């Protein structure tokens, strides 16, 4: 099935979609609707201003409705809405509800099960004479009602005619999205109308209600033939036909119908039939005369020739210039165009525009030609260098650029540098205005994030890296990273702006990699999380990824070098500790109970060992080798404890014995023995000498015992 409102594919029928869940990634409803409706189907967006959704009421089993949900910040024209509301409901689609919620404007309309005229033509082919008569009467009445409110629909086509009934055929109008309030004469710069049903004068940007009657004529002719009279023609050929030739009615057999169509499809809007003429035809007025297309084109005295084209008017010239771009560029450079505009067409406004454009030396010839086309025919469908320009075209070239196509890259860069999209946006082209707005907004956001990232990088480089020779030699900013190539940058910005899937894939690619790198790259923390940042910053992070990988590689190399250095340091500590350990073992085996120097040497070795052990424990890293060394130290500490205690005890005892075995004590002892010898005799002297010997043994025995413990403990130390 097709959407009744825009002819887009409808993947699920309403009868089957009552229990269906919304497709993944579908829009969520604003809060004012969320509690009353649920989304059954979302149709792929074609327009720049709104989404169309099939919705079902949460309460009850009522029929589904169509919700037109405008993009955030876009609101339908209030004056147009007010006038549309005054059109009788038998001529327009009924509006069930409208409003603004959470910044989103919306309109709720009934779902028409009979479909649109487009669906009927695709399914049944040409309409029967009774159906055709009913269509003409219904459409004429609808246009009278629209124009009575001083509105011009501007986008009449079979897709916008919904069927109220099939027998008799009765249509209602929908999609007043580009409708405008009618003044005496309207000048439009927007080319949002559908080319196949647009009046020739729309190329010049000047419209009135007669433009809707041209569209009516094309719709009736297509309904009579079963196909559009210009079907199969390219846009360029279609434009040329509209500007230079009358619509061929030779296949219409019915003379009265042919009269109506000839009147509706007169290329001169002043002569074209309108409300009164159609009413006379419907009434069967026998006095109504056959309309006649004006014989030759008015305008220039001599035509401007491009290839096989002969141009007499400004809009014909614009169409031909757009179709013969290389010739047009050459004629613009040579001054031939200006001479014809001045001498033959006598269009001095266009001459002044050309003079102004020629003074703008920063513009290329292609850009000057573009601005001339927009002046000559503001309603001309967008074109650049002979190729049609649309949102789809730009996105296609962006996709080709992302695949590495150099032609796509050059084309994309060209339309940006030449300001092509901006020119059409300023001229009022709605689709390209939306493209320009999104593109420029994404570019501005990227530029802001890029400058912020450069500042962060420069700060971290200044703190952590010396200026390189190349940076100083070539005047580069320390820490700067090369920007993405312009064409590739623009292609990615467009992908971010119009393809949520591409954005999500880029986010999923970057987030884990940057999270892994952030452990070693400190400035990544200042850039924000890839999983949460706004889309343009993803491109900044993507551009910084090689630099982050370089930092991580450098950090890993420095870490490995530091690890290697630490391993060398640990190995040296192990060797030093082993040397001291062996010295301790050797010194312990040479301890003599009466040799103070040997014990003092052992104490020195133990102190040296302690100092090295303290150094090992105080090191600020914890790799495996160091941990094993610390565990070995812990075991050695246990083994050394008896030796250390014995050594300390020996030294304390030896210090205490210094008074007992000093020279003065020896003199006193000798004098005492001699005195006793003189007074008592030899026996008394021997007793005194025995007492002195026992006292000496009492003081020396602990030293001998401790020295024995030291020798035993040292001998038991592991090698």
From TrEMBL:
Origin species: Vitreoscilla filiformis
Name used for this protein in its record: Protein kinase domain-containing protein
GO MF terms held by the record: ATP binding; protein serine/threonine kinase activity
One Pfam family in the UniProt entry: Pkinase
Highest taxon, organism lineage: Bacteria
PANTHER family: RIBOSOMAL PROTEIN S6 KINASE (PTHR24351)
The keyword ATP-binding is annotated on this UniProt entry: yes
Membrane-spanning ranges: 686-704
Ranges of residues in domain Protein kinase: 38-282
Keyword terms of this UniProt record: ATP-binding, Kinase, Membrane, Nucleotide-binding, Serine/threonine-protein kinase, Transferase, Transmembrane, Transmembrane helix
InterPro entries per UniProt: Kinase-like_dom_sf, Prot_kinase_dom, Ser/Thr_kinase_AS
């Amino acid at each position: 099935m097709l959407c009744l409102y825009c002819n887009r594919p409808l993947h699920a029928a309403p009868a089957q979609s009552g229990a269906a869940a919304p497709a993944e990634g579908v829009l969520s409803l604003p809060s004012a609707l969320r509690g009353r409706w649920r989304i059954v189907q979302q149709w792929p967006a074609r327009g720049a201003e709104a989404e169309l959704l099939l919705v079902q009421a949460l309460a009850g089993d009522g029929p589904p409705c169509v919700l037109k949900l405008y993009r955030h910040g876009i609101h339908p024209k209030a004056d147009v809405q007010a006038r549309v509301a005054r059109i009788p409901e038998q001529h327009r689609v009924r509006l069930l509800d409208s409003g603004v919620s959470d910044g989103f404007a919306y309109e709720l309309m009934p779902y028409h099960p009979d479909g649109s005229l487009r669906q009927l033509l695709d399914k049944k082919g040409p309409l029967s004479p009774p159906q055709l008569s009913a269509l003409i009467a219904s459409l004429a009445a609808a246009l009278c009602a629209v124009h009575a409110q001083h509105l011009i629909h501007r986008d009449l086509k079979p897709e916008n005619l919904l069927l109220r009934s099939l027998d008799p055929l009765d249509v209602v109008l929908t999609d007043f999205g580009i409708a405008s309030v009618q003044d005496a004469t309207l000048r439009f710069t927007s080319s949002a109308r559908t080319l196949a049903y647009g009046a020739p004068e729309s190329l010049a940007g000047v419209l009135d209600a007669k433009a809707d009657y041209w569209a009516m004529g094309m719709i009736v002719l297509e309904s009579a033939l079963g196909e559009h009279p210009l079907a199969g023609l390219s846009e360029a050929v279609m434009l040329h036909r509209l500007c230079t030739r009358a619509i061929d009615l030779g296949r219409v057999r019915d003379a009265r119908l042919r009269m109506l169509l000839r009147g509706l499809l007169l290329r001169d809007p002043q002569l074209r039939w309108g409300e009164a003429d159609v009413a006379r035809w419907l009434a069967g007025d026998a006095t109504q005369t056959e309309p006649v297309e004006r014989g030759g084109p008015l305008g220039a005295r001599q035509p401007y020739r491009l290839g096989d084209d002969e141009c007499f008017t400004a809009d014909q010239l614009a169409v031909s210039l757009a179709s013969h771009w290389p010739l047009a560029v050459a004629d613009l450079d040579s001054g031939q165009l200006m001479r014809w505009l001045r001498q033959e067409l006598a269009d001095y406004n266009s001459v002044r525009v050309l003079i102004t454009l020629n003074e703008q030396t920063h513009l290329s010839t292609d850009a000057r030609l573009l601005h001339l086309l927009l002046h000559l025919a503001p309603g001309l469908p967008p074109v650049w260098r002979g190729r049609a320009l649309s949102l789809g075209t730009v996105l296609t070239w962006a996709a080709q650029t992302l695949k590495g196509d150099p032609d796509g890259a050059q084309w994309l860069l060209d339309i940006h540098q030449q300001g092509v999209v901006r020119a059409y946006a300023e001229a009022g082209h709605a689709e390209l205005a939306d493209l320009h707005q999104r593109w420029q907004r994404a570019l501005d956001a990227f530029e802001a994030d890029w400058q912020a990232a450069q500042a962060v990088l420069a700060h971290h480089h200044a703190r952590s890296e010396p200026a390189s020779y190349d940076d100083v030699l070539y005047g580069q900013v320390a820490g700067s990273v090369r920007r993405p190539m312009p064409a590739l940058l623009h292609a990615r910005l467009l992908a971010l702006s119009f393809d949520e899937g591409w954005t999500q894939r880029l986010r999923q690619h970057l987030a884990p990699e940057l999270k892994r790198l952030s452990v070693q790259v400190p400035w990544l923390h200042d850039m924000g999380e890839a999983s949460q940042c706004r889309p343009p910053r993803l491109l900044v992070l993507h551009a910084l990824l090689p630099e982050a990988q370089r930092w991580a590689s450098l950090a890993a190399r420095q870490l490995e070098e530091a690890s290697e250095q630490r391993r060398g340091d640990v190995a040296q500590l192990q060797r030093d500790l082993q040397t001291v350990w062996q010295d301790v073992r050797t010194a312990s085996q040479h301890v003599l109970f009466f040799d103070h120097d040997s014990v003092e040497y052992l104490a020195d070795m133990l102190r040296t060992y302690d100092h090295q052990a303290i150094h090992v424990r105080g090191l600020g890293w914890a790799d495996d080798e160091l941990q094993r060394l610390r565990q070995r130290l812990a075991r050695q500490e246990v083994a050394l404890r008896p030796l250390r205690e014995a050594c300390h005890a020996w030294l304390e005892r030896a210090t205490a014995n210094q008074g007992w075995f000093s020279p003065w004590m020896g003199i006193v002892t000798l004098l005492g023995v001699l005195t006793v010898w003189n007074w008592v005799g030899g026996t008394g002297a021997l007793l005194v000498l025995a007492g002195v010997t026992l006292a000496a043994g009492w003081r020396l025995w602990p030293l001998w015992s401790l020295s024995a413990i030291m020798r035993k403990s040292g001998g038991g130390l592991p090698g």
